[in-house]
């Protein structure tokens, strides 16, 4: 019991129609996932092919999955471009990166669902604590019977299934 109980207010969402948690799911909008539209294969992808690659030391592999490099015509004179990454390889890296991002998005979604479940559990606990009175002994018994009935049915279903399996094999 705290002294602010009578002052209890509900928070006001800034975007009432949008769940706050839904905003968190992020999926990039690049056209090319090999170079993220930069023209150069992303370092973490390069290292799948060249594990010791260091972008500060080594020439930068150009992306052959898209045309983004053509927007940087001045690069040729600096001799910093590694042209060995074929279209086939870049398509493969693009695919790998898309899969990684899809997995990342899926994990975000899973986290959101977990958060929602947690929130629901908290609300349920709060509702329970708001219960005006405890269950009467009669209500308790009814609840137990309901539970054991469900349990029995479940066991029966399982046995029936076992028998069916036995006879069908
Ligand atoms: Zn690209």
- Gap between N and C termini: 64 Å
| Radius of gyration based on Cα positions | 30 Å
Report the bound ligands by name, code or SMILES: zinc ion
Helix content: 40-55%
Give the number of helices. 3
N-to-C series of helices and strands: HEEHH
Shape: elongated
Strands in their spatial order, largest beta sheet = 1-2
Give unreliable regions as ranges.
none
Largest sheet: 2 strands, parallel
Short key terms for the protein model shown above:
3 helices, binds zinc ion, two-stranded parallel ribbon, mainly alpha, 2 domains, 2 strands, 169 residues, elongated
Structure description:
By secondary structure, this protein is mostly helical. It has 2 domains: 18-132, no CATH class; 138-169. It contains 3 helices and 2 strands. It has a two-stranded parallel ribbon with strand order 1-2. It is elongated, with a radius of gyration of 30 Å. The mean pLDDT is 82.
